[in-house]
Design brief:
Elements: E1 14-19, H1 22-32, E2 37-42, E3 49-54, E4 60-65, E5 98-101, H2 107-116, E6 125-127, E7 134-135, E8 144-150, E9 156-162
Parallel strand pairs: 1-4, 5-9
Antiparallel strand pairs: 2-3, 3-4, 6-7, 6-8, 8-9
Length: about 180
């Protein structure tokens, strides 16, 4: 992958999300996904809690619990459903999904394991550069394979497995769209 010539970044320290029920979040991320709970914080003045989970590679996934947080709005704060079920849209400034890196040879096993744990998991997607971005089977053009599922608060989670190194000239070939291109 490309080198950053401006800052020596070492990856994502943590991504902080908001949950409705911290116990339910701990049960899912530690109990179902096996991510160790590595730090808990009780925020001052009754503001809530902030818990951190190890998601591998020296990175963490964190959650805030606020007693007065507004409810999520599916289709705005996160997609309404899984991408293979026709949903991908979320609002500007929202976090669409979190993708956790997994080994390519484990993706099918991990899908089966999640299903066995009672998690509603989408189909295995082979992302490529075809018109619809999905190949029916693993082939040379596939750059990442993934599965999607939701946490108890409807946060979209992806297990993603890179199948090749990115950064080739053909990987960066689209002109960025602007606010003027939006239809909303």
């Amino acid at each position: 992958m490309g080198d950053n010539t401006e800052f020596e970044l070492r990856g994502v320290n943590h991504l902080a999300l908001v949950c409705s029920d911290m116990q339910q979040t701990v049960d899912f991320y530690s109990g179902v996904l096996g991510m160790p709970l590595i730090k808990t914080i009780e925020l001052p003045m009754g503001w809530g809690q902030h818990f951190f989970f190890d998601c591998g590679g020296g990175n963490a996934l964190a959650f805030f619990w606020f007693p007065d947080a507004p409810d999520a709005v599916p289709g705005i704060s996160a997609p309404k459903n899984l991408p293979d079920r026709g949903e991908l849209l979320s609002a500007v400034g929202s976090m669409n999904h979190i993708a956790l890196d997994v080994a390519p040879d484990k993706i099918e096993e991990y899908r089966d394991k999640l299903i066995a744990k009672g998690v509603d998991v989408g189909v295995l997607l082979n992302h490529d550069d075809s018109e619809f971005g999905i190949a029916p089977a693993m082939q040379e053009g596939v750059f990442v394979r993934s599965i999607y599922f939701k946490d108890p608060d409807g946060i979209l989670v992806e297990f993603a497995a890179w199948t090749r190194e990115l950064g080739l000239p053909e990987d960066v070939r689209h002109e960025p769209r602007t606010a003027a291109d939006r239809t909303a």
